[in-house]
Amino acid sequence: MSWIAWAVLGLAVVMAPAWLQAEESKPQTGSPPAAQQAPSSELSCNDKALTGSGPGFKSSQEESEAAAIEDWLKRARAIYSDADWKKTKEPKMECVKQGLYSKCFAIAIPCGTAKASAP
Questions:
Q1: Nearest CA-CA partner of 56 in 92, 104, 24, 90
Q2: b vs e for 66-92, b when ≥16 Cβ sit within 10 Å of the residue's Cβ?
Q3: Exposed, middle or buried: residue 64 (CB in 10 Å: 0-12, 13-18, 19+)?
Q4: Would you state the pLDDT for residue 50?
């Protein structure tokens, strides 16, 4: 019978840190945090993804990724004047290498709040 008591005591000692962590991670009671003000316009997204690649191969993959995003932004801002790579749906960066050079393709569905005006 005493081995059951030792097993329960051992289990309590082993589980104590997990119980304490669970208690600390519970949301605090009291007043809820202040709600952030919603933007005045809803973010809308294009129905198709755009692809940007930039010119040629670059000696650095970072440069190639930056060129691809820059080319993607030109195309996206033709649809949404406030388009940003960080405000996209399903963003992907695909790169190919040829020897020491790389070429990247930025692919994403552009989103924004302001439709671009027709030229």
A1: 104
A2: ebbbebbbeebbebbebbebebbeebe
A3: buried
A4: 95
